[in-house]
Amino acid sequence: MSRGGKLEVIGKSISKIKSVKHLTPFINESKNQIIGNVIYIDNYGNVITNITKSFFREISKSREFEISVRNYKFKKIHSKYSDIVNFSIDQSKRNNDGQALAIFNSSLNLEIAIYKSNPVNFGTAASLMGLNVLDTVTINFK
Q1: What's residue 66's pLDDT?
Q2: What is the enclosing helix (H) or strand (E) of 26?
Q3: Phi, psi dihedral angles at 118 (to 5 degrees)
Q4: Phi, psi of 41 (to 5 degrees)
Q5: Which of 7, 84, 129, 135 is the most exposed place for a label (fewest CB within 10 A)?
Q6: If you ran DSSP here, which 8-state letter would residue 19 be given?
């Protein structure tokens, strides 16, 4: 390209962009359920979905909800990973390592994680929950 090559050598020209269905979450007709998908698993084994914070807020309208990922249920989305820790309890009595949580990550996508997971010795959200890219994540609203 930098030496005057033609784009046609790389690929065909397109007239419009095709949307990828698995990158767009689905809302049922009653607007009381979001069905999303796992779109990425990071190096820590955290499971990132295609459900964004803005999309969640738009549909939830502050209603109670339950996130379902395989046999795991979440009724709260934490602001940060350490929100799962009760700091009023003495540190020696805390037992939060390995707890699953839901959070909106820095990209504002819904993420399922394990607090202080260790991919080598303990496991990750992806490995412990048996999750892979394109698996379903459902949010039901009340």
Answers
A1: 99
A2: strand 26-27
A3: -130, 105
A4: -125, 120
A5: 7
A6: P
pLDDT digits (tens, 9 = 90+) for 71-107: 999 999 999 888 876 677 787 765 655 789 999 999 9
Q: Is residue 131 part of a domain?
A: yes
pLDDT the model gives residue 64: 98
For residue 75, give its domain range: 25-80+96-141
**pTM of this structure:** 0.79
Two tokens, residue 78: 């934490």
Residue 89 maps to a domain: no
| Domain-located, residue 137 | yes
Report the number of distinct structural domains present in the chain.
Answer: 1
48 Cβ contact list (under 8 Å, min separation 6): 38, 39, 40, 41, 42, 105, 107, 109, 110, 111
Residue 63 lies in a domain: yes
Residue 85: Cβ-neighbour burial (10 angstroms; 0-12, 13-18, 19+): middle
Q: Looking at residue 68, which CATH number applies to its domain?
A: 2.40.30.90
Query: Residues in the chain with pLDDT < 70?
Result: 1, 19-22, 85-86, 93-97
